[in-house]
Amino acid sequence: MQKDPFIKSLQDGRNVWLDGKKIDITKDENFTGTLAAISELFAMFGDPKLRDKVGYLSPKTMEYVHSAFYVPESYEDLLKRRTAFEIWSQSTDGVMSRLSDYARSRLTGWYASREDYRALNKAFPDKIRSYYEEARDRHLFLSLVQRDPQINRSDSQLKNIEDLGLLRITKKTSDGVFLSGAKMIGTASPYSNDIIVYPVGHLKEEHKPLAHMLIVAAHSPGLHLVCRESYAATPLNKADAPLSASYDEMDALLLFDNVFVPWERVLLYDNPEAIAKINTDPVSNSLAYHQAIVRLLNKLEFVTAIGFEIAEAIGADGYLHVQEKLGGLIMQVETIRALVIASEREGSLNPYNTFVPNFTYIQTARNLGPIYYPRALEILQLIGAGGFIQLPSSLQDFQGPLSSLLQKYLVGATVDAEKKTKLFKLAWDLVGSPLGSRHELYERFYAGDPIRNIAVQYSTYDKQRLQERIQKYLQ
Questions:
Q1: Fewer CB within 10 Å, N side or C side of the chain?
Q2: pLDDT, tens digit (0-9, with 9 covering 90-100), for 401-442
Q3: Which residues contact 217 (CB under 8 A, 6 or more apart)?
Q4: Burial class (CB in 10 A: 0-12, 13-18, 19+), 260
Q5: Half-sphere exposure for 388 (CA within 13 Å, toward CB)
């Protein structure tokens, strides 16, 4: 495992903290399963059967790189990107949400729209182009961090940015800038090569010290990645918690203690107007959330498949109320699938010849995610009911002295006792484990405040087109 190029790239002295100790994530058992899963994805670029599906040849190196970096110029190009997202999502059952293809898609969007920023910062187009090519050709694992720590959310005026812990530029030199402050939630940051940092909120002119966009190397001196509690199951417990063992994409609080960033990686600074444009960039948003809803689709399909299996395993699939719930899962899946297809079919070329998926459909799917996913988990809970609670502590019990009794009394309607137990433990890893609880929270809030997002969809929608239809009744 240590010979893997991706794993080797993480052995750079980064400051990752877990349980009060600085750790080497390439050797810590809490990261073993996750890093193995990512390494398998990266290995696809060397597989002749998969590399054309997940990647394309870089025009500079003529080696395969991920299709998240592919700038689409047609409907067919969008399908190429979707295929890559589907393969990675299916390989991890949609449970790993930040496999770098999201951050890479954001970067690709900013790169494709780079000339839009020249008037705001003349150096931005060349800097983003240079970094885009570097990230693409070096297979860099990227993550994003935007949110501020929850110190005092009532202070909307940002009167004292230092006391609020907000990330700010504290010093500028001829070589670069120094940063201090904190950011959350750094999903996947402990095993990222670089972290793209910028604020997501609306900033006023007086908040210039906060209005920056930077590429920060994860091993930068002074940058501390403080991990949350690990949900990873040990290798010995993989059969009992298969998702937790392989797909715990760690979240971290990022503490910047006088972190240096060279000017070539300071994409924007002291520029609230440019940061506002970065946050609303239509190409970056469309390409990134296109990936996000493809992943959401695969995750909902995974939950739906588990629901089907549980209902059949306990002989409940013939009941009308169970069929109604399973039908609800199907409706969710097919609604998101239709929105993915519609976003691609109704995409259009922008002035820079980039074929952009229709954001209205993407926005709709994204806003349905925080509603659909918790409901999908609720349906699993309602169907499996008490069966989730009365499970053997481990599948090892089937190898013990009570094996014959367990085989008799835990048997299902269509499966033997051991397979039924495996199925319920898989489902419990989604609906009841710490990892499962984290995922429900993630799907509710990863895109920001769901209420605000739906309100934004209303405020930005072309309402006049509909309202004109009733004007004949108001004359």
A1: C
A2: 999 999 999 999 999 999 999 999 999 999 999 999 999 999
A3: 193, 194, 195, 265
A4: middle
A5: 21
d(CA 419, CA 312): 12
| DSSP helix/strand/coil, 195 | strand
Question: Mean per-residue pLDDT for 114-143?
Answer: 97
Reported as a single tens digit per residue, the pLDDT across 192-251 is 999 999 998 788 888 888 999 999 999 999 999 999 999 997 655 788 999 999 999 999
Q: Which amino acid is at 189?
A: S
Q: The dihedral of CA 18, 23, 29, 30: what is its sign?
A: positive
H or E segment at 438? helix 434-445
Looking at per-residue pLDDT, the higher value among 156 and 313 belongs to 313
Burial (Cβ within 10 Å: 0-12, 13-18, ≥19) of residue 17: middle
Whether the model clears a pTM of 0.70, i.e. scores above it, the answer is yes
Contact 416, 409 (CB under 8 A): no
- Letter for the amino acid at 62? M
Closest CA to 86 of 291, 225, 232, 279: 291
CA atoms in the 13 A half-sphere facing the CB of 152 = 12
d(CA 59, CA 44): 19
DSSP output for 37-50: HHHHHHGGGG-TTT
15: its two tokens:
């400051």
- 363 with 285: CB under 8 angstroms? no
The answer to whether residues 158 and 209 touch, using CB atoms and an 8 Å cutoff, is: no
Task: Tell me the residue type at 84.
Answer: A
Whether 24 and 11 have beta carbons less than 8 Å apart is answered as yes
Distance CA 246, CA 32 (A): 8
pLDDT, position 2: 45
- Give pLDDT, residue 205: 85
